[in-house]
From TrEMBL:
It comes from Bacillus cereus. The keyword Repressor does not apply. The chain crosses the membrane at residues 6-27, 34-53, 65-84, 96-114. Keywords: Membrane, Transmembrane, Transmembrane helix. Residues 250-263, 270-283 have a biased composition (Polar residues). Residues 121-170, 179-202, 224-237 have a biased composition (Basic and acidic residues). Residues 238-249 have a biased composition (Low complexity). This is Calcium-binding protein. Residues 118-292 are annotated as: Disordered.
């Protein structure tokens, strides 16, 4: 019914707009009055039909609908008949006949759809009696509901009291347990902190000892390395001094000692022993007679009477 009422309201607004346009066109005499008038009247009649149908309560809604439809069509054709008389179109008689038929149909349908008065009175009494019985029943139900609500309220209060006592007991137990757990946690935390502190001190002491040992070992190794380097430098210096002094003192060669070659001397004048070995002071290699580089080695020559003398002086034999 709400949907039908909304549709009727929309159609009524549309009909109102079309009728306004029809009136304006009628005064302007532009020939559009009928164009706006016919759909406006149709929309108006349909909206009235919808309103009548949605607001009427009956036991026969179908007959009521057609009765309203006949009434609206009756009004429509009555208007057309009057307009036909005014304009003298010759359709007035036919339209009046249709109007009369619609009026008769409307009367019949209304008589069918309208409820009987006696039946209505009986129904009203029955409805009133049912209403009184319903009120009595509602009062009894309300009393029963109040009693049930009172019992439920008392039961709920008892349960609430019991629940509060249990909650208080649980809170006390929870508080005691919480205090115990807090004390245990603090004790464990204190013990763990003490253990970690002892462990940290032990690790720090061990690390300190290890660093001290490493430092001492590094100092000892550095001292040994410096001592070895110093001794090596001294040995190298002594060896260099020995070789230089030997080469200087034995210039010309004698007693199997090496001597430095004088570039102005030839081989024969520097040869003081049989099978003389030629050494190079730069490469620290010696060459025996018949070797590949024996004759080609002419600079920085140191002569030895034997390979043993050359090896003793720190020279190595050339591979060629």
């Amino acid at each position: 019914m709400t949907f039908l009422s909304n549709i009727s309201a929309v159609l009524f607004l549309v009909a109102l707009i079309l009728l306004i346009l029809c009136i304006i066109s009628f005064f302007k005499k532009n020939g559009k009055a009928m164009i706006y008038g016919r759909p406006g009247v149709i929309c108006l009649l349909i909206s009235l039909l919808g309103v009548a149908t949605s607001n009427t309560k009956t036991d026969h809604p179908v007959f009521e609908f057609f009765a309203n439809l006949c009434l609206i069509l009756f009004c429509f054709f009555l208007i057309l008949a009057i307009l036909s008389i005014i304009k003298k179109t010759g359709m007035a008689k036919k339209q009046f006949l249709i109007t009369g038929g619609l009026f008769i149909a409307f009367a019949v349908l209304v008589s069918i759809a309208s409820p009987n008065t006696e039946k209505t009175t009986t129904n009203d009494k029955k409805v009133a009696s049912e209403k009184v019985d319903k009120q009595d029943t509602e009062k009894e139900e309300e009393l029963e509901k109040k009693e049930a609500d009172e019992k439920a309220r008392k039961l709920e209060e008892e349960q609430q009291t019991k629940k509060e006592k249990e909650e208080q007991k649980q809170q006390v137990e929870a508080q005691a347990q919480k205090q115990q757990e807090e004390q245990q946690r603090q004790a464990e935390a204190q013990a763990q902190k003490k253990q970690e502190e002892e462990k940290r001190q032990a690790e720090a002491q061990a690390q300190k000892q290890q660093e001290e040992q490493q430092r001492q070992a590094a100092e000892q190794a550095q001292k040994q390395q410096e001592e070895q380097q110093r001794q090596a430098v001294e040995r190298a210096s002594q060896k260099k001094s020995s070789v230089a002094s030997s080469a200087t003192s034995n210039y010309g060669g004698s007693n199997g000692q090496p001597f430095q070659n004088n570039p102005s001397d030839d081989k024969e004048t520097n040869t003081s022993c049989q099978g003389q070995v030629k050494g190079n002071a730069n490469s620290k290699k010696y060459h025996v007679p018949g070797g590949q580089y024996y004759d080609s080695t002419k600079d920085n020559i140191v002569w030895f009477c034997s390979e043993a003398d050359a090896k003793a002086a720190g020279y190595v034999k050339s591979k060629r």
